[in-house]
Design brief:
The protein has 507 residues and is mostly beta strands. The protein has 4 helices and 31 strands. It folds into 4 domains: 3-50; 61-174, Cupredoxins -  blue copper proteins (Immunoglobulin-like), CATH 2.60.40; 184-366, Sandwich (Immunoglobulin-like), CATH 2.60.40; 380-505, Cupredoxins -  blue copper proteins (Immunoglobulin-like, Sandwich), CATH 2.60.40. The termini are far apart. It binds copper (II) ion (CU). Copper (II) ion (CU) binds next to loops.
Length: 507
């Protein structure tokens, strides 16, 4: 047989297989096989010769998760790190990209990584026992999903207390065409650091182990919440870090007079709220939790655990400007320095300047979405969720149920069962003395500026909201991403002591 006859046979067989797969198409496939014979060849993009061997996609980022000792505050401490750094490698994509990240667990312990704020398919969400098995020692997993959003996010371990040991980092999705003009796009990732194992903290609070200075609270005269309300903390950290650098060896960046900066302020801490200000400058908040907001002026931005605020600031003159992050409830701060060429790289000593207005979680009512966020029509389901706890045993609850977490072996919280395409309303009431940064996985929710404000058209979209002592806050979300989703307080010690529920639904 001639070569062309062989090609013809192959082509016909392929068409027949396709036809078999879609029965109704068979007559067209038979007609098509003649056409394929005349065109087939290496130059025809539909010919077998033009294809290449199918290979798995190459990751854009490889995150090697490893155990290592680091000393960001001068005391060597066992850490769990991404690619040996703290914070971990910044993941940066552009709107519309495919997320392609390979995780390698090189440790002796299991781990998982959660992509905070990302609208992911449920099985990519990285919560052990809920959406996946923990990634075992020596195991790898490839995470791939289409990116459906823009903004400032972060990733962190959701396995036990690894987030406190360093497994976290920034995750940025740039707009194809930014809504605002700026010269530099700058990530400011703030964390709290312990010079000891975090696994001792809850036993120390519960008085089951000898207490260290980290749990002797409250701190008299600590940094109050704006308005001079005292701010309660569980852990009194020895120090805080900005982009992995301490106050003594600060993070610095050279800028020029007139530079317009977009600062992506990310609170990647485990249990610390920060009040951020830039010396001698006012900021303009342009996004909250990655989503755009109508720009508002702020002298200070207060950022709850896991929240993000993008701010614009224009460097108004030559000099050295301290970017302060005061840890609420303590007398400590961390700071970095933005300086023009030749100016000092030392942060200003002392407490950060107080300059109004206070933005971020200090004034949620000022956050407005630039576009309407009213949910699509659907049945309404409402949950009243009391944020509570038992201080005698350091246990934290949502609607009087305790999630079976690391320090709650007897927990038996039931899932919040909802249905696909419902409008789900959650009314938080905080009956405790502490703030709770409440985070829902896999969804944005509308944060209402007043309880019961369900008809507000421009409520901001968020994934984390801090509910203060005695406060009532309402949120609502649209159930359009089925799965088992974690819903919890982002203070890691409250989570580990029971403050979590699952939200479940199928189509
Ligand atoms: Cu909490």
């Amino acid at each position: 047989m001639s070569e062309s006859g062989e090609t013809s046979n192959q082509s016909s067989r392929r068409e027949a297989i396709l036809a078999g797969a879609a029965g109704a198409m068979a007559p067209f496939a038979l007609v098509g096989s003649g056409a394929a014979q005349s065109k087939a060849g290496p130059d025809d993009p539909s010919s077998p010769e033009s294809r290449t061997m199918p290979l798995s996609p190459k990751p854009d980022y490889v995150l090697d998760i490893e155990s290592k000792s680091i000393a960001p505050l001068g005391t060597p401490t066992e850490a769990t790190l991404v690619n040996g750094g703290y914070p971990g490698t910044e993941i940066r994509y552009t709107e519309g990209d495919m997320f392609k990240v390979l995780l390698n667990n090189t440790m002796q312990n299991p781990c998982t990584v959660h992509w905070h704020g990302m609208i992911v398919p449920n099985y990519m969400d990285g919560v052990p026992e809920i959406t996946q098995l923990p990634l075992g020692p020596g195991e790898s997993v490839f995470m791939e999903y289409p990116i459906r959003q823009v903004g400032s996010y972060w990733y962190h371990s959701h396995y036990e207390l690894q987030e406190q040991q360093g497994l976290s980092g920034p995750l940025i999705i740039e707009e194809k065409r930014p809504d605002h003009d700026y010269d530099k796009d700058v990530t400011v990732f703030m964390t709290d650091w312990l010079n000891q194992s975090p696994y001792g903290i809850i036993p120390q609070i519960r008085d089951e182990q000898t207490q260290t200075s980290a749990v002797k609270t409250p701190v008299a005269g600590g940094e109050p919440f704006p308005g001079d309300k005292p701010f309660g903390i569980d852990v009194d950290y020895p120090g805080y870090l900005m982009n992995g650098k301490s106050l003594d060896d600060p993070w610095t960046m050279q800028v020029r007079q007139g530079d317009r900066l977009r600062l992506r302020l990310i609170n990647g801490s485990t249990a610390t709220f920060f009040r951020v200000d830039l010396e001698d400058h006012e900021m303009e908040i342009i996004a909250a939790d990655g989503q755009p907001v109508v720009p508002t002026r702020a002298g200070n931005v207060v950022i709850a655990v896991a929240e993000r605020y993008d701010v614009l600031v224009t460097i108004k003159r030559s000099g050295s400007f301290t970017l302060n992050a005061a840890a609420l409830g303590t007398k400590r701060k961390v700071a970095g320095v933005l300086h023009t060429p030749g100016a000092s790289r030392k942060p200003a000593p002392g407490p950060p300047e107080w300059r109004g207005p206070a933005g971020g979680m200090a004034d949620y009512a000022a956050l407005k979405s630039p576009y309407p966020t009213v949910l699509p029509d659907g049945p309404v389901r409402t949950f009243d969720i009391e944020l509570g706890g038992k201080m005698s045993g350091y246990l934290w609850s949502m609607a009087n149920e305790y999630y079976p977490e690391l320090y709650v072996p007897e927990g038996d919280a039931s899932p919040l069962q909802i249905r696909y395409e419902e409008r789900v309303r959650v009314r938080f009431t905080n009956t405790t003395m502490m703030y709770h940064p409440m985070h829902l996985h896999g969804h944005f929710y509308r944060l209402l500026s007043k309880p019961g404000g369900w008809d507000e058209t421009h409520a901001p979209l968020k994934d984390t909201v801090a509910v203060g002592p005695g406060e009532r806050i309402d949120i609502e979300f649209y159930a359009d991403n089925p799965g088992r989703w974690f819903f919890h307080c982002h203070n890691l010690y409250h989570l580990a002591a029971g403050m979590a529920r699952e939200v479940n639904y199928i189509v």
